[in-house]
Amino acid sequence: MKTTVGKNRAMAPYGSRGNDQGVSKPSFVAAVQAKLPVLNDGTSSIEIRHGTYLGKPAVFFTAQDYFVTLAQDCKLTLKDYNHILFKEYVDIGEAPMKILEWTTDFRPEEETSIVPVWILIHQLPWHLFRWQVISKLVSDVGVAVGPDQATYSKSRGNIAKIKVEIDLLKPRLDQIWLGFNLLDGTEDGRWLEIEYEKVPSYCLYCKLQGHLESQCRNKIRDERVKVQREEQYKREKESKIEKKSNDEEGYQIVTRKRG
Ligand SMILES: [Zn+2]
Questions:
Q1: How far is the CA of 155 from the centre of ligand 1 (A)?
Q2: Can you give the pLDDT at residue 243?
Q3: What separation in Å is there between the alpha carbon of 141 and the centre of ligand 1?
Q4: Distances in Å between the alpha carbon of 241 and those of 46, 162, 185, 229, 250?
Q5: What are the residue ranges spanned by the domains of the chain?
């Protein structure tokens, strides 16, 4: 059940793009086409083998081409990739459409476990408020997407807020060690506390975001049906055995008498 539709929409920190008037921007198609010679260079060596699978025609890619080379090109054609990832929803007509990251094993009936979330880094030293530093600092938490406006403009004290892509199936880090070598050769450092904002839950059973497997109604329903089927099967089996033993009773009485 997606109760979050229409609510809790993350505001894009760079939502207002400022005044673009007077700036001639290439169209989306032109921008993609400009990339094509580069893309073709990268994909011209893609190897596609034709064959059959279970008696039907099939094409086979190497895993490297399928998961890496081709997927890379797909990301390149998505202009403004990071800008889009700042949003949880986009409005298409009247309907809010949820944005999920595309992966090579995408299936429309399943939701990916990789989601962009906001994290807060507490007590981040002032001189580390640089994107080159912050994005590397959080690499064990997830893939850094971008800072929020206050972090970008350093207007929120020592708390940095960053959008990071995390995998909901992986354990969540709540601290990062910030270590440094002192001039006398000794080492020192301290922990940076990491706080997560609104991390969606993920159900391993139905592969959907929004609830945990322990709260999954689909799982409870399926298990109930399974138990009912098993009971039904048991009853049918018992009634068959009963019928069979009734049919054989006469014969058994005879054999017992002979013994
Ligand atoms: Zn579920």
A1: 41
A2: 80
A3: 25
A4: 62, 67, 83, 18, 15
A5: 46-108, 114-200, 205-245
